[in-house]
Design brief:
single chain; mainly alpha; two-stranded antiparallel sheet; 6 helices; disordered N terminus
């Protein structure tokens, strides 16, 4: 994956992007780490994770040990699963939201390349 793309990156308007993607004329790649950071910041995942972990600790300390551990596990696992699925989530949302498309382009976490015809 360290090889350079065969064609230069494209800069398309939202409507052109959606049309080209549905026609199969472009290939879209995401930076996995950058996408995870973008989604984490956009969805405020750390603000979700901290209270859930706190509730899990409180449950464990008040005698609900296994329930507390389960809640803590959810507080750790759910944000990681969200970050793992970030590229698919962003792609789906960008098809409908021009503002999100612009934000992703501005963040530099997506590369659009014209597909070579065989």
């Amino acid at each position: 994956m360290d090889t350079a793309p065969a064609a230069p990156a494209l800069s398309l308007s939202h409507q052109d992007f959606v049309t080209a993607f549905h026609d199969g004329a472009i290939t879209v790649t995401f930076d996995p780490k950058g996408t995870a950071r973008f989604i984490s910041a956009r969805l405020l995942l750390p603000l979700f994770m901290m209270p859930v972990l706190g509730i899990g600790v409180a449950l464990a300390l008040t005698g609900w040990i296994w329930t507390g551990f389960a809640v803590m596990a959810l507080g750790i696992i759910v944000p990681r699963l969200i970050k793992r699925g970030a590229p698919r989530f962003l792609m789906q949302q960008m098809m409908e939201d021009e503002g999100l498309y612009r934000e992703v382009l501005h963040a530099g976490i997506m590369q659009v390349v014209r597909r070579e015809s065989a």
